[in-house]
Write a structure and sequence with these properties.
Elements lengths: L3 H5 L4 E8 L3 H4 L6 E2 L2 E11 L2 E15 L6 E13 L13 H10 L16 E2 L2 E2 L3 H6 L6 H9 L1
Antiparallel strand pairs: 1-3, 2-4, 3-4, 4-5, 6-7
Length: 154
């Protein structure tokens, strides 16, 4: 992103309303299968020599494997960036590497587990089945229930 006019003081801020593509190489070794363009809307300001403030709202959708079904599912996400990004300025250049800034924030949005499965009945086998968190809380068929009561008494 060219920010020469901002750094020269010709403008007070740069309005951003764009879509950016994160290269597939960035997320090749992550849980992300695919990543749509990142919609970025906000402002970039240069209040003084040591500060370059980026204040934007970002949103997109990443494709992940469902934690239960292992089928690809879309995971919509959004985040705000409000930080000093002077460290991302390329030395003696008038450009800002916004892709690096976006990627640092997207990494924080990748969920550890994500599932769209609501009916767990089809996920079962011989002697096992997947249960929901709610069912786990009310399940009274715990073979260790008596042992747990004994431990709680001590």
């Amino acid at each position: 992103m060219n920010i020469k006019e901002l750094l020269d003081g010709n403008v007070n801020n740069i309005s951003i309303d764009e879509e950016f593509t994160i290269p597939k190489e960035e997320y090749a070794n992550t849980d992300i299968i695919d990543l749509e363009k990142i919609k970025v809307k906000g402002n970039l300001t240069y209040p003084d020599v040591d500060d370059l403030l980026l204040e934007v709202d970002c949103s997109s959708t990443m494709k992940l494997n469902d934690s239960v079904s292992l089928e690809p599912v879309n995971y919509p996400f959004s985040f705000k960036i409000s930080e000093n990004v002077a460290e991302f300025l390329e030395k003696d250049q008038f450009t800002l590497d916004i892709i690096s800034i976006l990627w640092e924030n997207i990494v924080l949005e990748i969920p550890i587990r994500y599932s769209e499965v609501t009916n767990y009945d089809e996920y079962k086998g011989d002697g096992w089945r997947v249960i929901s968190e709610d069912e786990k809380k009310v399940n009274t068929n715990n073979p260790f229930k008596d042992l747990l009561k004994e431990i709680e008494k001590e």
